[in-house]
Amino acid sequence: MRMRLYQRATAGTPQEAIGGRGDLPSTQRPEASMTESQSSVGGSADLALAELVRAYRRRAGLTQPETARLAGISAAALRNLEQGRVTAPRERTLRGLARALRLSVAEAESLHLAAKSCRASAGLHIGVLGPLTISVNKVAIDLGSRTQRTLLARLALSPHTPVSRDELIEVGWGSDGPATAADALHTQMSRLRRKLGQAAAAEDARQLLVATAGGYQLNVDNDQVDVGVFDRLLARARQSRAAEQLTLACDQYARCLQLWRGAPLSDIPSLRIHPEVVRLTHLLLDVVVEYATTAAELGRDAEVVPLLRQAAVLDPLNETVHARLMLALAACGQQATALAVFDRLRRRLAEEFGTAPGRELSEAHRQVLRQDSGHDGAAPVRSLHQLPADIAEFTGRGRELARLHSLVPPADTNGTA
Question: Cα Rg for the chain, rounded, in angstroms?
């Protein structure tokens, strides 16, 4: 659970939902995902928006003054936007740009998503899809206290929902906590609230962390916790897939998975088996499989192999993940590697549980053996069809054969045996 998932060299940008049209900035497929230094919600979201607007304008062959005039904004406003100095563009500005640059519906949506991420990049952000991260206005906050980190992590797993004092005490101090744990909890929460006050310029720290009748509650917007952003992007990807817009869905799955920096809250031992952490881990595996399945239908297996490998490390007994990994490897021409994946898991299942691979994994194994990755036009296995060669010891014995024939009675002319 402490392994590091999905690193990537650069932050994801909204143009990934476009599919690389025209002269848009080239997107990096998520063979690996987010860098550790990237913000949990988008890192350089304002830069991503600036690059996106500039790329659309250049594709349209327009100058800044021409674009500004068509969009109904000032040239200075457009210049500031393209230089990354605007963190909250107005909806009217975005609509004007979409009209001036003749963006498609999907491109206009990407522009709005980039703007939304840009707005969300200011203020408080909490990341739980990996080691816990806290930042205010893109500046990381070091809480210092391990107990405060643990308490905040638990509250961030269920924002806008009260968490009981008993649960917080058990998470922070264990089941054998001191008799003064209730007072210690109150003290730690007060200190945590003061530290979160670094965001007071944009938010009221007293409203961020509030005491309830039986515990405490963290009040943040969905986009202030990476799980909220992940859920929103995942919903879009699944909607696109249901509408059979596979290329768009594939790119949206990729952007969604960029938010994962590792096993959820891998640096908080007391939350490792918390039900919500377990749910998030299973959700990650499900989404990787969905992405891989969608990519396979488009013949884009190569881009998901690294994700599948790391998902297999995260859950080394997950047969669905391993089956999809085998098929993706086979589709990339790595049949021997795919068979080795099957063999390792088969041995582990036998040694640890005394069981054989299930139907899904076994079927994937058969497909790999047939060199059938599930794609149309996959090359079938070529078999040789010929009789075995004559055996020399039973040739050239005409006299012996004649003797044998003479011993056989003639056939019955009545047709009976």
Answer: 31
**Residue 204 pLDDT:** 55
Amino acid at position 168, single letter: L
What is the pLDDT, as a whole number, of residue 291? 97
DSSP H or E segment with residue 210: strand 209-211
Which H/E stretch holds residue 10? none
For residues 384-410, average pLDDT = 62
pLDDT of 375 strictly over 80? no
How confident is the model over 178-188, as pLDDT tens digits? 889 999 999 99
What's the helix, strand, coil split of the chain in %, to 5? Answer: 55, 5, 40
CA–CA distance, 72 with 56 (Å, rounded to integer)? 17
> Which residues are bridge partners to 164 per DSSP?
215
The string over 392-406, giving b where at least 16 C-beta atoms fall within 10 Å of a residue's C-beta and e elsewhere, is eeeeeeeeeeeeeee
* Size (the chain), residues: 417
Q: In the structure encoding, which two tokens stand for residue 206, read together? A: 């007293």
pLDDT above 70 (res 90) = yes
Tokens for 205, please give them: 């720290």
Alpha-carbon separation of residue 411 from 84, 400, 408, 414 (angstroms): 101, 21, 9, 9
pLDDT interval class at 30 (50, 70, 90): very low
Closest CA to 368 of 342, 394, 389, 345: 342
Rounded (10°) CA dihedral 4, 284, 264, 229: 110
pLDDT at 206 over 70: no
Strands 133-136 and 124-127: antiparallel
Task: Please say whether the dihedral angle defined by the alpha carbons of residues 58, 61, 65 and 69, taken in this order, is positive or negative.
Answer: negative
**Distance (Å, rounded) from C-alpha 352 to C-alpha 330?**
27
Q: Residues near 317 by Cβ (< 8 Å), separated by ≥ 6?
A: 345, 348, 349
